[in-house]
Amino acid sequence: MEHVIYRITNMINGKKYIGKHSTTDVYDGYFGSGIAIKQAINKYGIDNFKKEIICYCNNEEELKEMEKYHIKKEGTFSKGYNLTLGGEGILGYKHTEDSIRKASDSRKRYYEENPEMREKISEMAKKRVGKLNPFYGRKLSQEHIDKLTVSRVKAITGVNNPSARSVICNETGVKYDLAQDAATAVGLKYSTTILKVCKNIRKSAGGFTWRYA
To answer: Which residues constitute the domain of residue 32?
Structure first.
């Protein structure tokens, strides 16, 4: 098993991504699991990215430390495609207030540079209003509103909270006691997309596939 640190460079805009990978074949075509780098590859095409092995490590611990070192050295957290400071990577990374703010700023820059993605999200939101909304044109009684409120409260408290379900990432085998913890780990704001994957409503969330523990 080889433990390597690699650098991916966007040949169009020069932005970079630093990643770590443990594999039996360093030329297996792996281009990382980061959300931002995946979106960039989808946008520009994989032929416009160059991958280089920049460091070989002896074990997992050294791999984590070298990933943090090279992310800082290359500045890919603030100016590139890395959304964390490295070490544990996206999975299992404990976010500080500063890293959360920087990740938020990074996502904002992404949408500023990719306005078409913001348009797609806007269009999806529009589909949930007007005549396509199941409650469009219906006047709810106070009794109905009260029942909906009680139902919502029950759904989001205690063990009835869907986000309280334990989930497993199929690609990494990592188990999360809460779906929301898994969402935070892969850079998602909400856990609903992960739960939809578990229910076979979606194919993936945050670049991974999921199942209930």
So the answer is: 2-89
